[in-house]
Amino acid sequence: MNSKLNLNPQIIENARNAAASIAEDVQEFIDRHTTVSVERTIARLLGIDGVDEIERPLPNIIVENIKEGGGLSLGVAYWLGNAMLQTGEDPQTIGEKVSRGELNLTKLPIGEENRIREKIDEIAQITVNKIKENRKTRENYIKTLGEGPQPYIYVIVATGNIYEDVVQAQAAVRQGADIIAVIRTTAQSLLDYVPYGATTEGFGGTYATQENFKIMRKALDEVGEEVGRYIRLCNYCSGLCMPEIAAIGALERLDVMLNDALYGILFRDINMQRTLVDQYFSRIINGFAGVIINTGEDNYLTTADAVEEAHTVLASQFMNEQFAKKAGIREEQMGLGHAFEMAPDIENGFLYELAQAQMAREIFPKAPLKYMPPTKFMTGNIFKGHLQNAMFNLVSIWTNQGIQLLGMLTEAIHTPHMHDRALSIENAKYIFNNAKDIGEEVSFKEGGIIQTRAQEVLKNAEELLLEIEKEGLFSTIEKGKFASIKRARNGGKGLEGVVGKDKKYFNPFIEKMLNKNFYNSSGTIV
Predict the structure, then answer these.
(1) Where's the D-Lysine 5,6-aminomutase alpha subunit domain (predicted)?
(2) Which of 124, 151, 185 is at the close of a domain?
């Protein structure tokens, strides 16, 4: 891509190399540790599902049993494989027996390590094959039905009742939506378990459960057939159950996941060690499942100034790119996040927003960038809000963004009604059509406001990344360099769930899902 912004390719390379070094440094820590949520995910992928009589998920019960026996450093796969060897039972039956107190996994005799691995490998391959088939189903739908053009029109449903969400989601699709995101109920990210079954009560959103994923997936497939295009389903793969949500999403064919390396640390005060280990496995699963991940850099600008701190957004995008590559995610699956969040009374603010969006497009040319709407400075004035969203939509089509989370004119008033979404979709479709090729027609003034702004942000991002490379990511977060929020390395929620790995530890899904033999040269699974 030719740079309309005259960005210095050497500065871009320096920033990317620094981000790669940061990710490599953190990866050394990740490779030495596991977490309770990673181990619960392995249990789920090995076929353990359901809850006991007091609604405790069986994967939690399994992990607690192993942890209490002092064996978690060896991993769930080790203990389940041994139990299968000793009892002749399948993982689900073993899980049910543990939940009833009939079996203690760490008290069983220990079998030969190779035979333990063989038992687990058989079960793991079944799950891997199912996820491969889900990916092929998506690819076949897109091939036969087609899909909407980019920027994909992305809208949110969040009633708290999955069945009402279905009604609203299908209405949005008929109005023109390409991606439906089911917002999670408030604070689910802080639950250290995944709720079970279909749910009809939630506050500010709907519980993320495997059954809810299944219900919405079926509804979107039905309405997709009706309107003649494939509709993507999005949920939130973050918080204390990040990899578990990735796993159930892969099993139920979700297409997009909010999946950031730093979001939970900064905005939910989840321990940084826990989050960085969890994000790696969650991204391996998402990458293998063909899921587009959305990163959360837009959130920085809700607590920090969008003009002064724009370079932190770019620096985080560089790091999220490198963390994603470590987990086998292709650039075409990296929905790196940014936002239209400058105060509307800034002189030439539109030019700064245009510079930021064009800069992201040029630096990450293959990524389906996720562009977030104005929220921080929405006032409840629906007419001004609709206009702010129109300016946002214009920047998006101008700079060829990939995923457009539509702004709602009723932002700051209430959760959108169906007619609010209809007006926002109409707004976006009008601008996307009328200004379709504006990016190909308009160049930017040499040394003008737009070029100068982008070059300045890039340079500042490079300097920040070089500083982080020297200091380390953990220390940088402790000093509050992102979103003006400080977090302690040993503080936050979930630290007690981080465990060092024994030399005999194994996770069969990392090896299988990172196997490049599954993909052809275009990245399609075979």
Answers:
(1) 5-511
(2) 124
Residue 49 in contact with residue 96, Cβ under 8 Å? no
Residue whose token pair is 């063989």: 118
Helices and strands, counts by H and E, the chain: 20, 11
Q: How is residue 298 written in tokens?
A: 């837009």
345 is catalytic: no
Burial label, 489 (beta-carbon count in 10 A; 0-12, 13-18, 19+): middle
Q: Which residue is catalytic, options 178, 260, 298, 420?
A: 298
Range of the domain at 265: 1-32+237-342+454-481
In whole angstroms, what separates CA 127 from the centre of its chain?
21
Cα 361 to Cα 302, 357, 395, 396, 446, distances in angstroms: 22, 6, 11, 10, 19
**Residue 524 — very low, low, confident or very high, per pLDDT cuts 50/70/90?**
low
Distance CA 279, CA 75 (A): 18
CB burial readout 506-524, b (16+ within 10 A) else e:
bbbbbebbeeeebeeeeee
The mean predicted confidence, pLDDT, of the chain is: 95
Residues 50, 26 share a domain: no
What digits encode the pLDDT tens for the residues 128-169?
999 999 999 999 999 999 999 999 999 999 999 999 999 999
Using alpha carbons only, what angle is made at residue 293 by residues 291 and 299, rounded to the nearest 5 degrees? 160
Residue 400, CA distances (Å) to 146, 321, 371, 394, 413 in order: 20, 19, 10, 10, 30
DSSP-assigned letters across all residues of 201-231: --SSS----HHHHHHHHHHHHHHHHHHTS--
Choice among 263, 300, 352, 371 that is catalytic = 263
Q: What is the pLDDT of residues 21-56, one digit of tens each?
A: 999 999 999 999 999 999 999 999 999 999 999 999
How many percent of the chain have pLDDT more than 90?
94
468 and 322 co-located in one domain: yes
**Angle CA 295–297–303, to nearest 5:** 140
Angle, alpha carbons 114-119-125 (nearest 5°)? 115
For 149-168, b where at least 16 C-beta lie within 10 A, e where not — what string? ebbbbbbbbbbbebeebbeb
Q: Does residue 1 have a pLDDT over 80?
A: no
pTM (two decimals): 0.95
Residue 263 a catalytic site member: yes
Alpha carbon distances (Å) from 362 to 230, 305, 455, 458, 476:
28, 23, 12, 11, 27
Do 325 and 255 lie in a common domain?
Answer: yes
370, 481, 493, 512: which is the annotated catalytic residue?
370
Phi then psi dihedrals of residue 75, to 5 deg: 95, 150
Percent of the chain with pLDDT over 70: 98
Domains in the chain: how many in total? 2
